[in-house]
Design goal:
36% of the residues lie in helices and 17% in strands. By secondary structure, it is α/β, with parallel strands linked by helices.
Length: 309
Amino acid sequence: MPERKTKIIKMEDVPAFLKDALSKGGRLLIGGNGYGNRPNALVRQIVTAGIRNLSLFGGPVNANDVDMLVAVGAVKETFCPMVSALQFGMAPNWRKAAETGTIVANGIDQPSTLAGLMAADLGIPYMPLACMKGTDLVKVHPLLKKYTPPFGGEDLYAVQAIRPDLAIIHAPAADIYGNVRDGSRGSSHLVAKASQRVLVSVDRIIPYEETLRNPEETTIPCRYVAAVVEIPYGAHPAGCTGGYAPDTDHLREYWQAAASNAQGDTKLFQAYLDKYVLGPSSNFDYMERIGGAKRLWELQRGASAGAAE
């Protein structure tokens, strides 16, 4: 039998992978939710690679990663149920771009996003939904159409299949063959099955023997994963399930810079990009710039305290 191939790629190979998957822009889906399990290190790589013309999809709540991609001109349209700074207020760069028409901010909600992904997973052109009855979402939702089904006698709504060209996901762990342990038990498995290609960043690579000992902990089987890259703290400034809490101080720094940028003063935002996105020579350099071992230890303690509560 031929030797089984590893799916591990090096950090320096990520830009080429991203450019190949998104050579003409295309549909990108960012995994995670809010400030949890967001693949921020991969998003920074998209910025440094200079990728443009993205149609951006996301989960229930999208935050600094989407806001930053919009700010640097990487996005032409968004299909995100919510883009928010959460406890820090609005997402200023995304909001300004939507209001001025720099991007098209498509009206979309989470049920129809999941339905579209389910349709792609099943290989069908659309998924029927009944929950849109009584709403005006169909007037602004480009993937949603009212139709009369062949059975039942009542009109339903069809959500077009959502099949991203690339999904980027962050998870706590995976083995060398691409069996991923997401930890959050969210919709990442559906995202992976619906997407043409999946790139997963993980905090650590585990032995394949550990996957065999505890197969129930695998949330994304290797068959759906194109590549895995080990990036410790790769979700930062978001947190990662069981590993580290969101870095609220860093998030505050980002949102202050973003607000200034949206108001026309680009200095703070450019300084942020230079320090944390364009400047780091490696992921370890990035970790030093965010505060080094002391700050990372504090974030680990934050995750442990949250779990205890």
